[in-house]
From TrEMBL:
CDD domains: NUDIX_Hydrolase. The lineage of its organism: Eukaryota, Fungi, Dikarya, Ascomycota, Pezizomycotina. Residues 34-171 form the Nudix hydrolase domain. It comes from the Eukaryota. PANTHER family: ADP-RIBOSE PYROPHOSPHATASE (PTHR43736), DIHYDRONEOPTERIN TRIPHOSPHATE DIPHOSPHATASE (PTHR43736:SF1). Gene3D superfamilies: Nucleoside Triphosphate Pyrophosphohydrolase. This is Nudix hydrolase domain-containing protein. InterPro entries: NUDIX_hydrolase-like_dom_sf, NUDIX_hydrolase_dom. SUPFAM superfamilies: Nudix.
């Protein structure tokens, strides 16, 4: 892993996210039922479209779509720092603020990895970034990106420049988290919707 400039991890977070402002080790000590943690970042643009990324054809779950994110590492200062790092590594976007937890039920999704059978707990957060202007994908992880609406996510397709792009989420839990993110966003900003 390449060290990132300290400005990468210069962000604020909502007080409601204090339980995630701890190290991965500390969280796993409190929750021994998990072998690891992962984080996802829901990034919306000024038109309330969500950024989704397509997994690389050579990676696990090839060609499927998800929000940016990945494993929180023991070297991350906190779970929140892990989410900010993953978003930067995968898209080049810098987190300005982590706003709130997003997810079905109590906000976490538990899954078993295919390769090693580890039990991973994933948290997804709505984040505000410095700019949504330029998305720079890491080709080792993702091959394409889209800005999508809630309707696009329900129809599994988006029309861009006269072309229809069809997409499928990595898991049903990923799609449920995405739809919950749109619901929470509308609830927080009901005017004009």
């Amino acid at each position: 892993m390449v060290p990132q400039p300290s400005t990468l991890l210069s962000f604020t977070h909502s007080p409601s996210l204090a339980p995630f402002a701890i190290s991965v080790e500390e969280y796993l000590t409190q929750h021994p039922e998990y072998d690891g943690l992962a984080g996802g970042a829901m990034v919306f643009d000024s038109e309330d479209r969500l950024l989704i990324v397509q997994r690389a054809a050579h990676d696990s779950m090839p060609n499927l779509w998800e929000v940016p994110g990945g494993a929180c590492d023991s070297t991350d200062e906190s779970i929140l720092h892990g989410v900010a790092r993953e978003l930067f590594e995968e898209t080049g976007l810098r987190v300005r603020e982590l706003r709130h937890l997003v997810g079905p039920g109590d906000g976490h999704v538990v899954f078993k990895t295919g390769r090693k059978g580890l039990i991973i707990c994933k948290f997804t957060f709505e984040v505000d970034v410095e700019s949504t202007g330029v998305v720079a994908l890491d080709p080792n992880e993702h091959q394409n990106y889209l800005w999508v609406t809630e309707e696009d996510c329900k129809e599994y397709q988006v029309e861009r420049e006269g072309n229809v792009v069809r997409f499928q989420f990595t898991t049903a839990a990923q799609q449920a988290t995405v739809l919950e993110g749109f619901r929470l966003r509308k609830k927080a900003n009901p005017i004009g919707r």
